[in-house]
Fold this sequence. Notes:
Blueprint: E1 2-4, E2 14-15, H1 18-30, H2 34-40, H3 44-48, E3 55-56, H4 57-71, H5 73-94, H6 98-106, H7 109-122, H8 125-128, E4 132-135, H9 137-140, E5 146-151, H10 167-180, E6 186-191, E7 200-205
Antiparallel strand pairs: 1-4, 2-3, 4-5, 5-7, 6-7
Amino acid sequence: xxxxxxxxxxxxxxxxxxxxxxxxxxxxxxxxxxxxxxxxxxxxxxxxxxxxxxxxxxxxxxxxxxxxxxxxxxxxxxxxxxxxxxxxxxxxxxxxxxxxxxxxxxxxxxxxxxxxxxxxxxxxxxxxxxxxxxxxxxxxxxxxxxxxxxxxxxxxxxxxxxxxxxxxxxxxxxxxxxxxxxxxxxxxxxxxxxxxxxxxxxxxxx
Length: 206
């Protein structure tokens, strides 16, 4: 597994504000107790003044835990997935240069996924916090399915569930891969630390 561990050097670890602001947008869109969820997480200040800079990863962990407690697993998964899609939209609009997007769309899916994963890996510390992001060497050779691994995943840290719950990442990967690699991409979290796995693993197939 090819890994990027820049995040481990950060103390305290921080995560980009999308992991907070897009969750608020998704809760609003679903009419799902936005204020109550943020209050339960102790993050009312982020609702009153949406963060513009990186936030403490503990805020992201607390928000995801509050989502599951307040809404139940099924609804929390829907909200988190939608927040991931919105994060993907933000990255496409503001973080991934237009020329790079054009190049990726022109490439066959194998090479495009390879380039995208390398770029995502270079910025992994912005979304995985103190977690360790990596992807399988086979992914770099254009092999399928493409596999991404996050050990110490902040989305499900401290949680236990019968099903995978890191839908925030699933949604973000789906939006990026469907837009830049192949419109037929299907993304699934095939193992989750909330279920007792040693890392959260996401597979992209097309």
